[in-house]
Design brief:
- It is a single chain.
- 0% of the residues lie in helices and 58% in strands.
- The chain is built from no helices and 17 strands.
- Strands 1, 2, 4, 5 and 8 form a five-stranded antiparallel β-sheet that branches. A four-stranded antiparallel β-sheet has the order 13-12-15-16, with no helix packed on it. Strands 3-7-6 form a three-stranded antiparallel β-sheet, with no helix packed on it.
- A hairpin with a 2-residue loop joins strand 6 and strand 7.
Length: 171
């Protein structure tokens, strides 16, 4: 699909008026006023609606006010905008092993567009919506598996990291 808010404010429909063909190319022209603020036309793709789902046909030449598709084999409705990319290549890590009383720093990274939201969960009832949360003055109850779930309008992925908490050494 396309990213909501980064797609043209118009749709295109191509209908058949009795022409027989195997495939075709189409050029879609639009005016700059159709491009939403924040959209990057160099990242635009064309989405084709087929019955109940959208697909992304092969894009050809594009400019700041036009884009072409090639090898299209059926007539349909079309939309133009930035492609939605589900979160992928997710990772989670921490700065452990740590001693009790230290600060735990959790970090996560992911690819995808639009940027995802983050939802962490872990031992001792820990939750956070920060991308890279910290917990100060940890205890042994903080040891275990931390999971971060990353979600955008195109999908969800998750990653885990394991923390070891060592007791403070005896003096």
């Amino acid at each position: 699909g396309l990213i909501s808010g980064r797609s043209l404010t118009r749709y295109f429909t191509i209908t058949n008026s009795g022409i027989a063909l195997n495939n075709y190319s189409a050029a879609f022209n639009y005016v700059a006023a159709d491009v939403p603020s924040g959209a990057n036309t160099s990242n635009f793709v064309v989405a084709k609606y087929s019955g109940s789902s959208w697909s992304l046909p092969t894009a050809g030449a594009k400019t700041s006010t036009s884009i072409q598709v090639t090898g299209v084999s059926s007539f349909s409705d079309f939309a133009i905008g930035e492609a939605c990319v589900a979160p992928n290549s997710a990772s989670a890590s921490n700065n452990g092993p740590l001693c009790a009383g230290a600060t735990l720093n959790l970090t996560s990274s992911v690819s995808g567009d639009p940027a995802p939201t983050y939802s962490w969960s872990g031992p001792n009832g820990f939750t956070s919506s920060s991308q890279n949360p910290s917990i100060t003055n940890i205890t042994s109850a903080a040891a275990g598996t931390y999971t971060v779930t990353m979600t955008n309008s195109c999908g969800t992925t998750s990653a885990t990291t394991e923390l070891t908490v060592n007791a403070l050494p005896n003096a």
